[in-house]
Write a structure and sequence with these properties.
The protein has 455 residues and is an alpha+beta fold. The chain has two domains: 40-245, Acetylcholine Binding Protein, Chain: A (Distorted Sandwich); 247-388 and 406-455. Helices cover 41% and strands 23% of the residues. The chain has helices at 7-25, 34-37, 41-49, 197-207, 247-266, 277-295, 306-337, 344-354, 382-390, 404-454; strands spanning 28-29, 63-78, 83-95, 100-101, 111-115, 124-126, 140-144, 148-160, 172-181, 189-193, 214-228, 231-244. The strands form three sheets. Strands 5-7-8-3-2-10 form a six-stranded mixed sheet, covered by helices on one side. Strand 2 and strand 3 form a beta hairpin. The protein starts with 6 loop residues before the first helix and ends with a helix. It binds 2-acetamido-2-deoxy-beta-D-glucopyranose (5 copies). One 2-acetamido-2-deoxy-beta-D-glucopyranose (NAG) binds at residues 58, 60-61. Residues 174, 220, 239, 241 line the site of one 2-acetamido-2-deoxy-beta-D-glucopyranose.
Length: 455
């Protein structure tokens, strides 16, 4: 057979042929002397030489590959790029029929470690993987005397994950890790679970090192066959459920903005006439804008989470309350400088609304001189108050000695004064009414947002 070959090449060829034939005939490894002289590399040459091919005796039979993993950290979840970065230990177990030996022949050696690069490795990949594989070089595998190979590798998995940030910061995500083979169809490679998924979940939960933003909730698994054209690929899908720790966001986002809104609501108790209310509210609004600018980094950059709606709601509440203050200030200004005439029906309605009892006087007629609608808090209104002081009291008899002209003028002044009082009263009523509407809106929107968050 080697007659036509140069001498040394022929010898080498015959050696390889011998080894291959040895491998084909009796697939087990001659392990004698391993316990005394250490492992003989020559004994494994035949197996190592086969590493380019799937190790099966009959090419029609599939390789059964069992997989399992342990999730040891959830490093980052990027809502903008929709990526989850996690760290896991992947365990791959398969059977190599050429890697068997008789442990009795070598002093009971049942397990050996071999550099992984010498062996055929199943090409298990994660479908969602979005990065180059950074598997460190020089990994080892464990081989048992029955040919069971156990290969563990650490992986930093940057996987694409459909993130739904609507409930941010109270959101839960469900990320998928799909394990499968690149090239081997289901006729050549069959995947199975090495461990129960509950066990994987339990181990990961107890092992997880990071105490970051994300908490692992559970891992679920299902098997699937992916069909591409006429080929079927075996896949195992893991659903990793994770939950965000919301405390950072509650403290930094929700609490300050709630305080600002609460202060805004309380500022309605500043008297509208004092003129302090509008500047106060403008300051609050400015402060809130600065807060929003600063906290923009904490918010997810994509999508519209409920918290953005909440912030927009807070901002619009503040703007509304500022507008209300402007309106009331204008109304008060109008009432005290040039009160427009008030329709009789409106006046009666106002009286009906403000004083349901009988203590209030009706609209001023010729003979009525009382003025119960005295503006109470009017620091800027010296003149009308003085006028009120000069007014004859209700039920007091009018002095008879005044001339007619003075009497008419007084009556006119009284009427004007009354009008001012009614307008001021109306402004206060509007203020109270709008404040109640504001409170109603505030409470209902907060309730809505809370209900949406908790469901
Ligand atoms: C195994 O190898 C030893 C020498 O290393 C040899 O003496 C022995 O005959 C071999 N056994 C078999 C079954 O080939
Ligand atoms: C190889 O496997 C196929 C199907 O599993 C079977 O039909 C065939 O007989 C096997 N060949 C040998 C030599 O065992
Ligand atoms: C793979 O796991 C199954 C049970 O899930 C087991 O029967 C089989 O022997 C395992 N295969 C290997 C190569 O460990
Ligand atoms: C995750 O999503 C998949 C479907 O995409 C679903 O079957 C599974 O039940 C979900 N898991 C959890 C824990 O929500
Ligand atoms: C996982 O843990 C739960 C409780 O934490 C326990 O009930 C269950 O039996 C465990 N499962 C396994 C496979 O260890």
């Amino acid at each position: 057979m080697e007659r036509g070959w140069p001498h040394e090449k022929g010898f080498l060829f015959s050696l390889i042929l011998h080894l291959v034939l040895q491998g084909r005939g009796d697939t087990s490894i001659n392990c004698s002397g391993f316990d005394r002289h250490g492992v003989d590399p020559a004994a494994f040459q035949a197996v190592f030489a086969r590493k380019a091919f799937r190790p099966v005796l009959n090419c029609s039979s599939p390789t059964h590959v069992n997989i399992s993993f342990t999730l040891s950290a959830i490093l980052e979840v990027d809502a903008h790029l929709q990526l989850m970065t996690s760290f896991l230990w992947l365990n791959v177990i398969w059977h190599n029929p050429f890697m068997t030996w008789n442990p009795e022949a070598c002093g009971g050696i049942r397990k050996l470690s071999i550099a992984a690069e010498n062996l055929w490795l199943p090409d298990i990949f994660i479908e969602e993987f979005m990065d180059v594989d950074q598997t460190p070089p020089g990994l080892m595998v464990y081989v048992t005397n029955e040919g069971r190979i156990k290969y563990d590798k650490p992986m930093q998995v940057i996987s694409v994950c459909k993130l739904d940030i609507f409930y941010f910061p109270f959101d839960q995500q469900n990320c998928t890790l799909t394990f499968g083979s690149f090239v081997y169809t289901v006729e050549n490679m069959v995947l199975a679970m090495e461990k129960d998924v509950q066990e994987i979940s339990n181990t990961s939960l107890s092992l997880i090192r990071s105490h970051g933003e994300w908490v692992l909730l559970s891992i679920h698994q299902r098997a699937k066959k992916m069909v591409v054209g006429t080929n079927q690929y075996d896949q195992i899908i893991f659903h990793v459920a994770i939950r965000r720790r919301p405390s950072l966001y509650v403290i930094n986002l929700l609490v300050p903005s709630s305080f600002l809104v609460a202060i805004d609501a309380l500022s309605f108790y500043l008297p509208a006439e004092s003129g302090n209310r509008a500047p106060f509210k403008i300051t609050l609004l400015l402060g809130y804008n600065v807060f929003l600018l600063m906290m923009n980094d904490l918010l997810p950059a994509s999508g519209t989470p409920l918290i953005s709606v909440y912030f927009a709601l807070c901002l619009s509440l503040m703007v509304l309350s500022l507008l209300e203050t402007v309106f009331i200030t204008y109304l008060l200004h109008l009432a005290t400088t040039e009160p427009p005439p008030m329709p009789e029906w409106f006046h009666s309605l106002l009286l009906l609304c403000t004083c349901p009892g009988k203590r209030c006087p009706t609209a001023p007629h010729k003979e009525q001189k009382g003025l119960a609608l005295t503006p109470t808090h009017l620091p800027g209104l010296k003149e009308p108050v003085e006028l009120v002081g000069k007014m004859p009291r209700c039920g007091q008899a009018e002095p008879k000695e005044h001339p007619e002209s003075t009497r008419a003028q007084r009556e006119h002044e009284a009427q004007e004064q009354h009008l001012v009082g009614v307008w001021v009263q109306f402004s206060h009523m509007m203020d109270t009414l709008l404040f109640r509407l504001y409170l109603l809106f505030l409470v209902s929107s907060i309730l809505t947002v809370t209900v949406l968050w908790t469901t």
